[in-house]
Amino acid sequence: MKGDVLMTIERQVAKGVICGLAIAGLTVAAQAADLSEVVKAPPKLPDTLTWNGITLYGALDVGYAYSNNAAPIGNYFAGVNANVFASPPGRGPISTINTQGYSFVGLRIEEPLGYDWKAIGRIETGFDPLTGQINDGCKTLVDNNGKPNSQQTTSGDSNQCGGLTRQVWVGVSNKTYGQLQIGRNNSLAADSIWGFDPVVIADFSAILWGLGFTAGTGATETTRWNNSAKYVYTNDFLHAGVMFAQGQHQGSSLHGDSYAANFGFNWQGLYVDAVYTAERDAVRSGLFGVGGCGVAGTPSCGTLSVTGQNTDAWALMGKYAYDFTAGAKGAPLNRLTFYAGYQNITYSNPSDPLSIGDTTVGGYMFGAVNNTAYSFDHKRVGFAWIGAKYELGGWAVSAAYYRAMQGYYQGNATATPCSTNAHSYCSGSWETASLSAVYSFDKHWDVYGGVVWSKLNGGFSAGYDDPETTTFLTGVILRF
Known about the structure:
It is a multi-pass membrane protein. The chain has a single domain (2-479), classed as Porin (Beta Barrel), CATH 2.40.160.10. The relative contact order is 0.15. The chain is mainly β. A 16-stranded antiparallel β-barrel has the order 2-4-5-7-8-9-10-11-12-13-14-16-17-18-19-20. Helices cover 10% and strands 45% of the residues.
């Protein structure tokens, strides 16, 4: 009996891999109609795991990746850095079992209070299924402090630095009056921009991967706000939101009071959204180079090298969905959606300088602080994207192009205009393009595959020997 069960599991895994490879080969059109006859659907799961108004939910993502220019995977990071704009810079081909950082688990609370009011809440954390560790971007920086690039594993600043650092909030909701959430919330920029991304799998998207330019409006750690109150109102035609975070010097990525506002509408398949964000005394963390920590006269290698900054950002985005089966009852999904958006971010020095000894998310301490990165000039970055997604039955095929553009800014007293990779303040660009496909057996099981290409130019490529990479990805996601 036990042997039969193991054989069944092995067959299901084998079939999942075959399906993932088929998607990676982009044989969508040929196989869409008869995939269910070739690969049996995974076992059915309950629609929800709910008890007394508390729902357990999450996702588990495991797959395979090959990159022609990447670094080895660390213990606390989300798999291969599929984008060239990564730390450390890629130093050769990587072939590995992979996860994209999409794996998470949480509890959703929803309890009726009467008169259409509900008590709501969310507790959520991310984890790496390959190592069993809670997602901790700050730990990856600390682990690589003082090491040359040739000895570093993947690392990166993150809004997830151990513990329950995805979302933790409570609130109330009403269909007529809207929803109020208090605690650690996704930023309004995250809520808005993520909904206008043509790509549904993280590593194929520069929006989902490059949170410092999008959801974090200039600082990845501020994708989620501590000590925040968020109010959103939605009806059939429009939605609006406002958000406030009270800054604090310990355990937060925002040390100053910060604000955001959002407005959007939809009409006959057209969706338009705008969001404005003002972040004050935000934390952008990095690691120490060789000799920069752990020796006499330098900070401890268990601390972070931090830049303090204010950012002011606005974004305007839209999408148009055309349903080929509109009005046909019971017809399978057949929809084409076009996406476009633009975000503008202005960086300046913090209003209230950060201090050595202060901490960010996860309690990580600042060993060195730069509060004067923009003393001679403001830094301005534009981020634009276009793309399309075609959905047919259980298939979703996405193509997308993303481009970040930085103008020259005077980085120091003697800096002169430049567009080379000699300095990070030179003008430059970061490009990403991807083609991906997802097949959903049902609401719980997805298989995906595709390719992502990225390249750095000018100031964005400072410190990179080979500023271009191509990565192939395939995998399976279980949602519950």
